Each structure stands twice: as structure tokens, then as C-alpha cells.
Amino acid sequence: MTTAAPPPNNTLFPTNVTTRNQEQSLYQSSGAIVAAIVVGVIIIFTVVLLILKTYNRHMRVKRELEPKGTKAALPPALGQKSSIPQPPTVTFIPGDIHVQSR
Hints:
By secondary structure, this protein is mainly α.
């Protein structure tokens, strides 16, 4: 008695190749999507940082240029001599000047 060998299964090989190609393309596309998301997040952080930097600079200049509020002068206590008030002095030190070290 002889038994016939089962016919070769040719349908397994093309399915396997198709599955590998699909998996490979999915991995590549998911890698590209992740890279695009990372680049997008970096761009968003950069834009927010630049906006905050310019806002901070604008507010610093505004604070330095606006006149200071005058406080109500307290009357001198009894027995103390009042002196001539001196005008307040303003010292402006720009933060953008870089001093070179030697």
C-alpha cells in the first residue's frame, strides 16, 4: 500500500511574503509618523519659547519705561528735622549686552 504525498501548499508562501511586506510598510510608515510628530512638537515648543521670550522682553521694557508710582510721603516724626528730598535716580542696565571676558 502506497500513500500519496499531500500536494505542496503553495498558498502559504505568497501570503507570508505579502504579510511581511505589509508589516514592513506599516513599521516604516509608523516610524515616519512618529518622526513627524516629534518634529512637530519641537517646532511648537520653539514657537512658544520665542513668543514667551518676546513677551518677556516687551514687558521688561514697558516696566522700565513707565513712571514709578509716587508713594504718599509720611510726615516726619516729632523732633526729627526734615531734609530736602533728593530726586530718585534710575540705573538702566540692559540685559542684552554681553561682556567679553579676557
